[in-house]
Model the fold of this input.
Amino acid sequence: MTEPKQPIIQIRNASKRFRNVLALNNVNLDIHAGQVVVIIGPSGSGKSTLLRCINRLEVLDEGDIWVDGMQLDHSATNINRIREEVGMVFQQFNLFPNLTVLQNVMLAQQIVRKRSKDAAERTARGLLEKVGIPEKADVFPPKLSGGQQQRVAIARALAMNPKIMLFDEPTSALDPEMIKEVLDVMLDLAKEGITMVVVTHEMGFARAAANRIIFMDQGEKLEDTTPEGLFESPESQRLQQFLSKILSH
Amino acid sequence: MSISSQDPSSPRQFIDVRKFTTQIVRHRSWFVSFIVLDILVVMAITSDPILIETWNYIVPGIAVTIQIAIVSFILATIVGLVTALGRISSNSLIYNSSTLYVELFRGLPLLVIILIFSFVITPALIDFVTTIPFLDDLLQHLVGIPEDRIATTLLRTRDIEETTRIIFAFALTYGAFMSEVFRAGIESIGRGQMEAARSLGMTYTQAMRYVILPQAVRNVLPAMANNFVLLLKDTSLASVVAVPEISHLTRQYSSNRFRYPQGLLILSFIYANLTIIMSMGVYWLESRLKTDKRED
Ligand SMILES: Nc1ncnc2c1ncn2[C@@H]1O[C@H](COP(=O)(O)OP(=O)(O)O)[C@@H](O)[C@H]1O
Ligand SMILES: [Mg+2]
Done:
């Protein structure tokens, strides 16, 4: 069904309006398997909305999205299948506070992927090892630092073996000293070849890991360039203004 | 809380008798007084043959009162949970019918609802069922009830107990109250929880069942317990349709023997003990949930 060269995410003429705000304005974007795409842009420019449309937490008003060859439509089976392929990491972590770290990583494996308890636990422990906090398996999330919580959230998403990982400002709610531990985990993932779409203003991460950088403003995709291209020849004036703002502090 | 001037690492703070006594006097005097009063009443009852007779007459009703309260509460919890889910549904038919139910049952006095269930709805239901012509055949062939027993089945004899009738009234009325409690509980859980669950591929139902409701119910446990206390007191309304719970027995006894002071003393004694013990339970639950949160 999926031809090898077909983009794993295809977005065509996507538009989304919230009352009188045009959150997405005719966005076109193709992302190929294995790419790491960083999205930057001022607050309110539609970055979160774009990510949330990809796993259908929001519904487009106009346009189409294909994920791994499946077009997003209104049927529930379709939505659930897409979400199984696409993992998401939120700015506020959104761990389940009533479950332990281990249970957080196991729950969806058991009830969505229908894995046995043993298999789910093995996967979960392996992933906690991978994100560097195996010793916190039996702790409840509110007792962890922000950086630890975000790493658990990454493990929880990875446990579903998604083909695509979406990150919505994963380090924006963190104290500065914890940003690195989360970015390191993300850098490892990028090296493993998983497709990643990351909204972040961490330019260090963008330089080290991104194949492409998308600049959005007022719901529009204004630039689609490489990390080198971004700093050497920012084309639009709005991007120049934006860069001078984020690099100055 | 008062600010302690002591060094927090000093072991003396654990055996600070003065502070402990102050705590008890300030916050628990009411309870100590209640216990003292309780003991005085018990002594009065045991030393007075008339009070003993009153007590013996009323006491069988305690089981009925508690039975009505517990069964109604369990049903009300189920009804309330389902209705709360209906009230947050995006399906407008479900939303509107559950809202109509809630508004209706909250809008009518419980006494009126009890009368309606006892004298209108249940008889109408029995009439309806007994007019189904093939009911006898159905009972015989499908359920296998022998012919001679059909004449005495509940519906045939119109013998649905008063207790059962009013349990429906309580369950539906408190179901309406509890649905608001559960709805507030569900709405207190941030949107991010549902989004995280959905982004992991869970269906709406799975997300509710495994992620949202466990947190929501935990948050509203004290409110649920308060509703149980209210329900227990409201069971006294069942006396108007002659259900043999404590209020009804008290009225019967007091008016027959003209012993209102004695009857009402015993009745108040029983209610106060039932509800205050439960209130203590609610306090304990609240403080436990609070310390749990602080540990988090
Ligand atoms: N659920 C919503 N309801 C109303 N307006 C929204 C909603 N989500 C986003 N918006 C609006 O859409 C615009 C884009 O938001 P968002 O995608 O969150 O931007 P970004 O992530 O780039 O900061 C903003 O103006 C925001 O106020
Ligand atoms: Mg955002």
In short: Chain B has twelve helices and no strands. Chain B has one domain: 51-287.
